[in-house]
Design goal:
Layout lengths: L2 E8 L8 E6 L2 H13 L3 E6 L12 E15 L5 E18 L5 E7 L13 H10 L3 H4 L10 H11 L4 H9 L3 H16 L1
Parallel strand pairs: 1-3
Antiparallel strand pairs: 1-6, 2-5, 3-4, 4-5, 5-6
Helix pairs in contact: 2-4, 4-6
Length: about 190
């Protein structure tokens, strides 16, 4: 089932179950957040393509993103709105367009997600890497709930947290098979430590 939602192009990616803090200061996004809170609705975070900007009405972002909902918000001392959003569902974006106020919108269709996928024993070291990463104070502050026995969740969190190139993160987000995603992450991690 397709629905039209606001799009939030970023130079960062969030996966289902992940959280990301955002500072909101542009009027179009302040309006979007206000509407989302009033209507108990979400928006899609979509990754900007490398080196691209959102100029001349061109959509310089990928066509797969993550539908997110606001889980926390507060006004900072400097007047900025600080929100934390949580990814719920991968989506495919079609027919993106830019409103007069500059806000992007598009039709989104959810992508199928399987249920729990047991983490294969051969990827136990990935679980260990993730457990070490989430001890960092900035990550700890996100209050992530992670089932370390679910291969999907281990792969999503590593996609977000490992220092991978954004194109690689996007490629991992777009993969449908969680075991293929885990295998790709294992190869990337091996290359980093070689």
């Amino acid at each position: 089932m397709k629905q039209e939602v606001p799009l939030f192009p970023l130079n960062a990616l969030v996966c289902p179950g992940g959280r990301i803090p955002l500072r909101i200061f542009e009027a179009r996004y302040l309006d979007m957040v206000s509407r989302c809170l009033k209507e108990d609705a979400g928006f899609v975070i979509v990754l900007l393509r490398d080196g691209d900007t959102l100029s001349q009405g061109q959509s310089a972002f990928y066509r797969h993103g993550t539908y997110c909902r606001i889980v926390d918000f507060e006004k900072s001392e400097n007047g900025l709105l600080e929100i934390t959003v949580q990814g719920e569902q991968r989506v495919r974006i079609t027919n993106p367009y830019r409103q007069d106020d500059g806000l992007w919108r598009g039709q989104v269709a959810p992508l199928e997600e399987g249920e729990f996928v047991a983490l294969p024993e051969r990827y136990e070291d990935l679980k260990d890497v993730l457990m070490a990463l989430v001890q960092h104070p900035m990550i700890e502050a996100l209050n992530l709930v992670i089932d370390y026995e679910d291969g999907r969740q281990v792969a999503w969190r590593l996609t977000e947290l490992l220092p991978l190139d954004n194109r690689e993160k996007q490629r991992l987000l777009e993969m449908d098979d969680p075991l293929t995603r885990l295998e790709n992450i294992a190869v990337q991690l091996q290359a980093m430590t070689a």
